[in-house]
Structures are given as structure tokens and as C-alpha cells.
Amino acid sequence: MRIGLYGGSFDPVHLGHLLVARAAAEEIQLDRLFFIPAAQSPFKPDAPPAPAPDRLRMLRTALAGWSGCEVDEREVRRGGISYTVDTVQAYRRQFPDAEIFYLIGVDHVATLPKWREASTLAAMLEFVAIPRPGELAVEPPAPFRVRSLSGFPLRLSSSAIRQRVRLGLPVRHLVPPGVDEIILNNRLYLGA
After folding, report:
1. Taking the mean position of all CA atoms in its chain, how far away is CA 78?
2. Is the pLDDT of residue 155 over 80?
3. How far apart are CA 106 and CA 64, in angstroms?
4. For the residues of 20-55, what is the DSSP string, one character each?
5. Where are the domains of the chain?
6. Which CATH architecture has domain 2-154?
């Protein structure tokens, strides 16, 4: 079995996330792909995300009808700072014979040696780097195994969507159907 793990804040989930998920599922021939929203990213300690129930609702809305894609709440339920190694170890126990792939932005490849228990993490899985337009491929640091995803590079980010909401600009065609309503109805991202 080939399992993909797609961690992040998903604050909010947008069409770029979904296109990356589709490309990864096809290129790596994943049997299952888990979206794993972080309770709190260790890379953004001073930027708390939108409330977890809202982010989970947006993810479930975005993934409705997608076979092979699931939302995993383990990091949100665990709370605190979400470390990838803890989550991957749980997947290793749950799926001991699976090949596990972890999707990351190409900008995170160089930082992998700084991740918690980096050598343990490197031994457990292969990373899949998500390109962005204009970003060059980065040589993976040893001992990490990293392959690059070739499909669907987009210049779209959650931070750009949050900024558009703060400015009162529409996001309807940048996020999956229904996610824009969740953002508006819950008045998400209006603060500074």
C-alpha cells in the first residue's frame, strides 16, 4: 500500500492544495491520501491558525466526494505544536507494511535537517516536494529521500487568500465550493 500524508495548516484549504493532492495521487500512485491539519505549526509559533473546527469543516467540504482522500484529526486532537515525526510514527504503527510519502513545499526541503528527530524521520519515509512557479528544485540534504512533484505548480497560497478576505476581496474561485461560505459565515481572517 502507498500512503500519502499532506500536513499543513490548511488555513484555509484552497484549490492549489487540491491540485497538488490530485497530482500526488496520480504521479505517486497513492492508494490513500490523508490531509492532516496541524494544531499549531512549529514554523509559525506566533501565528495561531483559525479555529480547528472551522479548518476541519473547510477540509471536509473541500474533499466531499473525493475517493481515496481523508481528513485526519490526530494533530488537532493532540493539540499543541504538531511535529511531523510524531504523526509519521503513528502511521508506521497503523500501516507497518506501507510505503509512506510526505508532501512538503519545495521551500521546506532545505530545512529538513532542522525538523524534530530528523534522522528518525528520514528513515521512515520519502518526501515529495511541491514546486511553486519560479522556485528552483533544491538538492535534498542527506539522508533525506526527496522526489519532486511535476504537476500543477500554482502561485496560490493560504496567506494570499487570508489577505484577500481582510481586504474584502472575493475568494470564491480560489477555494473549493462551500469553503468561501464557511469563511464568510464564520467571519474568519478579518482580524489584522
Report:
1. 17
2. no
3. 27
4. HHHHHHHHTT-SEEEEEE-SS-TT-TT-PPSPHHHH
5. 2-154
6. 3-Layer(aba) Sandwich (3.40)
